[in-house]
Design a protein that fits this description.
Length: about 220
């Protein structure tokens, strides 16, 4: 698929994204979260941006990318700048994994790993944990891709009115966690098959969408 280069002003951030993606998705990839009050339906006008060089006004949620672009984002269209907290206080607490390995012969031991995921409405942070000792081996963060369907819990609930839209939200967060998992495993030079357990913490709406439960 063809990819295009998008530059965002005044931030000066540049990303590459596939043809047909919306400017909302491109901004999210650059770490810029735009207002999506109507959930990307094109009715609220809160995601207005300007295409250079002639400052043409477009709605970021409706504009499909089919060329290289320079886009100016007014302050009024930004929800806030992305600053994902990925550091935390290390704990010496012993962990009690649900899955563990017992070896009948010495010398065949391999490690097992788990994931701790902070599933936020706006951001998602995942940590790769050594389930034997409890140490964090790597941390990876991303924007919650559901932001393109609405920037807060209420607009996500409003968006998920049909089974199809609910499935879109669920698929978006599952893809995101799968992607974070792959990146964490690459960082730690392990296989994704060595991850046996995952703990996900989020608000009720985020948890229910992730698990496919009614909201
Ligand atoms: S018009 Fe509402 S998010 Fe674009």
């Amino acid at each position: 698929m063809k990819h295009f280069s998008i530059t965002f002003k005044p931030d000066g951030k540049q990303i590459s994204i596939h043809s047909g993606a919306t400017l909302i998705e491109a901004a999210g990839q650059a770490g810029i979260i735009l207002n999506t009050v109507c959930g990307g339906k094109g009715t609220c006008g809160k995601c207005l941006v300007y295409l250079e060089p002639d400052a043409r006004e477009v709605l970021a949620c409706q504009y499909k990318i089919d060329s290289d672009l320079t886009v100016t984002i007014p302050v009024s269209s930004k929800l806030f700048e992305q600053r994902i907290l990925t550091e935390s206080v290390d704990t010496k607490a012993q962990i009690q994994p649900n899955v563990y390995k017992k070896y009948l012969r010495e010398g065949s031991a391999t490690m097992i790993f788990g994931l701790a995921v902070d599933l936020g409405t706006t951001t998602v942070v995942a940590r790769l944990i050594d389930m034997a000792g409890g140490q964090c081996l790597a941390t990876q963060a991303a924007l919650n891709p559901q932001t393109r369907f609405g920037d807060d819990v209420i607009s996500r609930i409003a968006y998920a009115q049909t089974g199809k839209e609910f499935a879109e939200l669920q698929e978006a967060i599952i893809d995101c966690i799968n992607d974070l998992t792959a990146k964490l495993c690459k960082k730690a030079a392990i296989e994704t098959n060595d991850v046996f357990e995952m703990c996900v913490a989020g608000n009720t709406t985020m948890n229910h969408i992730f698990l496919g439960l009614p909201i």
